[in-house]
């Protein structure tokens, strides 16, 4: 008899694009596996934590799912994951990786298939260091993920800071920050501004005439929003554990079939959804969630072909993987990314030591 | 057409019967859903005291909902991490006891309502709506950046708090607790509406200058109504946090204030059970439409529109017909 | 020639009926007193004429059926209303109040301010800071500025100083004799009504109970139907 | 911090304020003059931005895009007014809140259904892009200067329209007593439709102009909506002058607060903590401003005294 | 001479350049009806607003029962014994007639802070309210919604609410306004009887009523009292004729 997967993700409202990509990537992998014994119950959390909690209750109490996945945002993850795993469910995160869940609050049934939140920022710091930047201006919204971002960057960067700014969450006008950047004498800019905030910043930054190099995590340069940023993003270096040109057969097939199926290029989030599903399928080959210990061991083995190439879990069930530096380019009419180097190799995270199951 | 009094009884009865049915048929999620509806209804009944009786359209009631939520979150967080809330000048420990948490939630909400009310009541009408919104936004942004308690990530509490003599982990038990509180508050609301205070408040809403010339202070009447209202919504916030075992700044958001208000409008302003019917309807719509399509908000929007356009006086108005004179 | 005719008109506020059977005819150039005790439906009749509440029965103005017209359409046919309680536009200045709905004709700003010099003196003041009497003048001026063929005055002298009241009665008389404007007057002052009005209609409980020439209104009838 | 930087930041504050004014102008018309709480005003702003992005994508012309934005928003506005809002003037504010909340849901998801879940591209036209050098050597984006001018122009034109023209007077009269102005012969419902269309077109224009330097995405309207409400309440509802001054105040407070509060906190805190507490306070600054203004003047700076 | 119940001394109030009240001294003796008449815009309502606490005078003093109340608020003055009716009815339109009067009774009782017992079960309040309604002749309308009353009936209700306060002095701003001829006559008779209960400061344009009722009349013209006297004195005053009465009366 089959297994039931509960997916809670954001499908309506402002941040819906990410959830839709995760879902589409995930479902593509399920379809490709040819297995029809995997039932996926998909729910829309509307990006509201209390709704997510309620949906988790529903999936666990009435749908009686075996495995959960899908959450995009850290704050929703914090609301749902601890109580779900405490009730004996497995949770495979396709996106959010808050630091608590990687360290002190880790759990043996919680696996993160994307990254620990700091990872891409650390990679950006490492890239900045490698590129010889010594005076960065850094900026993120004033909320926990923003604080983590700046901490992550500083962890690897080691140079001086020309300025450090926390912006308002949801801010759309960056004229004053840009003026501060211009006046700061910085040699580079690092920013973490997910979603619309990043689009606004990049457009305004490009229009300001400042020519300092910019580094950021992949979130503001992902396939879904690059088209909206346009020329302003060209040439910007960003860090990501995945890109469509990573050279391995799984990835090539993924990019091709995703495009064929959904008529758009896959994004980072789609790849994460796809990998999450494949991890699950690989584990199901050897064990059933009913036998929690065996199933957990199967997950830990991570015996699947990742779109990222090598993929392994660290001791805290978070990825150990390469993180690349990419550059935004234009291919024909389409803005996309090209890998220009590896920023961090076989990187795990800073919190693993705090984790004991 | 049925009489409003009968409708009220029917609503409360159904609201109790459905989870009971779910309990015997092993449908725990239905109970969770009903609990959610009951708690929202409680928050809305609270707001309705200010809004329906006192004419105070508060677009900032999420403040009290959030304060209630964080009262629970902070106390339980300290209890579960065994860290004291405060050491100097005297020791305050966290707690996992619902009654204590409720008391704290209600007292803090009362203080906040007193303060916000004092300042906001200088204004009237739309300005009142907006100044209460402003207070809501202040609390929201503050909670987002309050790192000690999780900031935007919020606070998780792993085990539901306890109530003496009741196993709150059993969904139906927690439901009953919430339901009893709702009934008590509805009773309180009925009494207030018919009381001398209620009469004076209603007049203060309509003709403040008249109230003054009979020697009463309309603003003080409204302030008291606002505080009572805030206290009830605060209590609802504490219960909501306990239902989710989680609090976050979204409890303070303007959307939350808006939703509480929408429950009332949907059900019927100044109707005893308006907020309850509104909250239940909204929760059900959200639940049943949510699965229909990615674009289910469109259906929700259209349904709400139909209700506003064709049901004067909200759903209660639709069911009971024209409002009858108070007896 | 008949200008306004109401035949078997009934109207209600929501579910409570206020008019049952009102019959009323105003000829061109005629001044008609609409009388009745408090609450008998005078103002409601006015509202029905101005299409401010839904009414059934037959209403014609200038031999045109107005039963289904919108309020502003009736006004444009030539009904000028001075409502009970004045209802000046509080946020607007005196001048703006007068101009808001003005239509071309013999009545313009200067003629109105000649009739009511006080309005000229306060032309820039907001209507809600005017004294009660000033507001009443403003309401009359405002209606005149629409250059109506039928002027409806619902308690237009309420709250006015006797001296101004005299002016207004004089103005009504002047309107009648000089412009040939038809007028419906609701007022409590029998003496003045008797002087200017040609016809009278008396309402009781929402129905016409007496109608005839003013001269025929004997003290005995008025005692019975109006109480004085 | 250099004076030059401060001047530039003041300019930024003004520009942000003017941007808010564009949005607030339409809202204050509809809200103040017609007495209608239109939560869906943000949706009209979004519709403008999306229409502009779509037309700019097809034709490449920014001017056409702006026209399309205003037209689309106005059409949406007129439809909404005639089909829904018209039935709600007589009811109290609360029904309007619910109805326009429902409209937000419909418009947002409808837009997503039409245009997909990803942000759209809309950029500054070439002739307005890039910085210019102002006297004193400040490098300032040309487009932002254009925005300032457009905003001030709209402010002037609207002010004249409402206070000087007959239509403007009738609109304000209708606000005081709708039934009475109709009884005097003014077709108020036609007039209101017109106002709604005008307000919507302004919101659409704002959406398109602002969309060019921000992200065009579903849900972009709501945060601006809240700010616009803050603006018109500070200024006094229904007053175009108030909306302008309120917008500039909010713009300046927000921009300068974001810069100076963290600096202030640095005087007695560690830099990182100061940054964080400073910006936390800064994010509350405009609401604090609004609270203070309303406590001082309960009907806003230029609102009717009660 | 008896002490006045209510007295103003040299009240001043300006709106911008306009002196709406310009040195008004007026008093109200026990048992009398003191009418204030004057052209529209003379400042009568402004004077009343100052007496009742709606406006604060720029200068001058107001005494109620010998106490200086110039700077106390409306509420305190109501408690101290001023019973006011409004020129434009201020009633709770959504409530019933009885509820409006009950409000007055409740105000007089001074304790609205009772949350649990229905007000209708408070027989003391209820009797007071019904009595006031009966006195103005609205007893049959107790359960009617106030919004359904005619204009004239609302004026009667205004007076009823003031009655429940058992005030030391009535201040009435045009109580006859909107009343029909018959209604005016009834109210005139009623006020005539009321003066034994408490004196009345009466602002009224209905000269029939004023001349029938007033013991004294003060004529206010553009903020100043130009004359105070008995009915006959005022009637025969040339100045008053020119400013106010015209030649009709
Ligand atoms: N808005 C309303 N809603 C319900 N009933 C009303 C309304 N306005 C008036 N009525 C009722 O309709 C009847 C007629 O009222 P109307 O105002 O026409 O009387 P009127 O003859 O003008 O009296 P008055 O001389 O007092 O002005 C009254 O009994 C009144 O109670
Ligand atoms: N708030 C205000 N601002 C400016 N002027 C005002 C204000 N209130 C009243 N006035 C003016 O003061 C004068 C006195 O007004 P008031 O209302 O006291 O007159 P009144 O004697 O009661 O007249 P009426 O008999 O017509 O009611 C009027 O000219 C009026 O326009
Ligand atoms: Mg009448
Ligand atoms: Mg007056």
TrEMBL record, chain B:
One of its GO terms (cellular component) is plasma membrane. InterPro entries: ABC_transp_permease, LivM-like. It comes from the Bacteria. The keyword Ubl conjugation does not apply. Keywords: Cell membrane, Membrane, Plasmid, Transmembrane, Transmembrane helix. Its main location: membrane. GO terms for molecular function: branched-chain amino acid transmembrane transporter activity. It is found in: Cell membrane. Signal peptide: none annotated. The chain crosses the membrane at residues 7-24, 30-50, 62-80, 100-119, 126-149, 169-192, 223-240, 260-285, 297-319. PANTHER family: ABC TRANSPORTER ATP-BINDING PROTEIN (PTHR30482:SF17), HIGH-AFFINITY BRANCHED-CHAIN AMINO ACID TRANSPORT SYSTEM PERMEASE (PTHR30482). This is Branched-chain amino acid ABC transporter permease. It comes from Parasedimentitalea marina.
UniProtKB/TrEMBL annotation, chain C:
Keywords: Amino-acid transport, ATP-binding, Nucleotide-binding, Plasmid, Transport. PROSITE patterns: ABC_TRANSPORTER_1, ABC_TRANSPORTER_2. SMART domains: AAA. GO terms for molecular function: ATP binding; ATP hydrolysis activity; branched-chain amino acid transmembrane transporter activity. CDD domains: ABC_TM1139_LivF_branched. Pfam families: ABC_tran (PF00005). Residues 4-228 form the ABC transporter domain. GO terms for biological process: L-amino acid transport. InterPro entries: AAA+_ATPase, ABC_transporter-like_ATP-bd, ABC_transporter-like_CS, BCAA_Transport_ATP-bd_LivF, P-loop_NTPase. The keyword Nucleotide-binding applies. Belongs to the ABC transporter superfamily. This is ABC transporter ATP-binding protein. It comes from Parasedimentitalea marina.
From TrEMBL, chain D:
Its main location: membrane. One of its GO terms (cellular component) is plasma membrane. Keywords: Amino-acid transport, Cell membrane, Membrane, Plasmid, Transmembrane, Transmembrane helix, Transport. One of its GO terms (molecular function) is transmembrane transporter activity. GO terms for biological process: amino acid transport. The chain crosses the membrane at residues 14-37, 44-60, 66-85, 97-122, 142-162, 191-213, 225-252, 273-296. It comes from the Bacteria. It is found in: Cell membrane. Pfam families: BPD_transp_2 (PF02653). InterPro entries: ABC_transp_permease, BCAA_transport_permease. It is a multi-pass membrane protein. Belongs to the binding-protein-dependent transport system permease family. LivHM subfamily. PANTHER family: ABC TRANSPORTER ATP-BINDING PROTEIN, BRANCHED-CHAIN AMINO ACID TRANSPORT SYSTEM PERMEASE PROTEIN LIVH. This is Branched-chain amino acid ABC transporter permease. It comes from Parasedimentitalea marina. The lineage of its organism: Bacteria, Pseudomonadati, Pseudomonadota, Alphaproteobacteria, Rhodobacterales.
TrEMBL record, chain E:
InterPro entries: AAA+_ATPase, ABC_AA/LPS_Transport, ABC_transporter-like_ATP-bd, BCA_ABC_TP_C, P-loop_NTPase. GO terms for cellular component: plasma membrane. GO terms for molecular function: ATP binding; ATP hydrolysis activity. SMART domains: AAA (SM00382). The keyword ATP-binding applies. It comes from the Bacteria. Keywords: ATP-binding, Nucleotide-binding, Plasmid, Transport. Residues 6-247 form the ABC transporter domain. Pfam families: ABC_tran (PF00005), BCA_ABC_TP_C (PF12399). The keyword Nucleotide-binding applies. This is ABC transporter ATP-binding protein. It comes from Parasedimentitalea marina. The lineage of its organism: Bacteria, Pseudomonadati, Pseudomonadota, Alphaproteobacteria, Rhodobacterales.
